[in-house]
Amino acid sequence: MVDDKSNDSASADKASTEEESSVNEFDVVSELDVKVRLNLETGIIAWKDLVPHFARGVVIKVLEGRDLVQVGDAMAQDNTALLQQWLQDESVSRASDDDARDWTAREPDFWCVVTAPWVLVQEYSEKSTVH
After folding, report:
1. Domain boundaries, the chain
2. Helical H runs in the chain?
């Protein structure tokens, strides 16, 4: 009977150690893969599909030339220094009413990636390679 308890205890300790190491490995892998995940989740969306998100005030405009995935990564990592720099140079900003009026008139498509609660968008153009 004593042997059963010690075996149960050893098994529980081993399972606990394996669980802790897998959680730690997952944390490291998920942190390293944020950019990869964001890149895979990036897609093209029409303005009409962004309207509800704009109405909620969660659309963030990223100017052409600024890497959309890099901005999403900075937001996910809470890199406030980098985000403040982009906000100051206006390459990243919250979409304005003027933007909405312009987009309604032109109906452009956008590269889009979500970093909850934000929806990051960058106008799509045939020539743009940075998204």
Report:
1. 1-32, 43-123
2. 2-32, 34-41, 47-55, 68-76, 80-88, 97-106
